[in-house]
Design a protein that fits this description.
Radius of gyration: 18 Å
Shape: globular
Number of domains: 2
Largest sheet: 5 strands, antiparallel
Number of helices: 6
Helix content: 25-40%
């Protein structure tokens, strides 16, 4: 697995790249890059930080081919990562956008080259100011990809890992390829984020 020496993503630089009031509109979605916000109607879309970084780059350059190298440079500016990382986060992005039919298509793959945002995009500019009071805010920003499958039959393993994490800061999940290590790890990460969020809100 790649090592990230400096876990900095596009979220750290978007405020200088996009005016605070710029909002992109596509389908039923509104994207506010400078605030790392994606809305579907009036509801906040739960999406990992890396996937959101990729979405911002694709939407800002809609209709244009964005190479895999450019996407990696935006989402992982100070790390060398494998191309498979992009595929994982693009899949999470498509899931968050509800893709699944020809009528609901936003991101097109250009095989061997990169990706293109193919849905029509509108652009609005509003005066900067505080977020509306009724707009949900995440308790913390994270780059955990959305899980593509549920960890079926892994409840005992999940409980065991969670118990171990209460006693150590670093834990390695090992096993043969294809048995679901990544699925379990993502499920546990989401549980821990939810637990922290619930604790901070109480």
């Amino acid at each position: 697995m790649p090592t990230f020496p400096n876990n900095q993503s596009l979220s750290a630089v978007t405020s200088t790249m996009y005016p605070p009031g710029v909002t992109y509109l596509f389908g039923t979605f509104r994207l506010i890059p400078s605030r790392q916000i994606l809305l579907n109607g009036d509801s906040r879309v739960l999406i990992g930080g890396r996937a959101l970084d990729l979405l911002i780059e694709l939407v800002a350059r809609h209709g244009e081919l964005v190479s895999k190298q450019e996407l990696m440079a935006r989402a992982w500016p100070r790390a060398v990562v494998e191309e498979s990382n992009i595929k994982v986060h693009i899949a999470a992005l498509r899931k968050a956008l509800g893709e699944g039919s020809q009528e609901q298509r936003f991101v097109a793959t250009v095989v061997g080259r990169g990706y293109r945002f193919v849905a029509p995009v509108g652009r609005e500019v509003f005066s900067s100011g505080p977020l509306p009071a009724n707009l949900p805010r995440p308790s913390s920003h994270n780059n955990i990809p959305a899980a593509l499958v549920r960890p079926i039959g892994r409840s005992e393993t999940t409980r065991g890992v969670l118990t171990c994490l209460e006693q150590t800061l670093l834990l390695t999940i090992t096993g043969a390829g294809g048995i679901g290590k990544t699925t379990v790890a993502l499920a546990i990460a989401q549980m821990m984020v939810t637990r922290v969020s619930t604790t901070s809100d109480s």
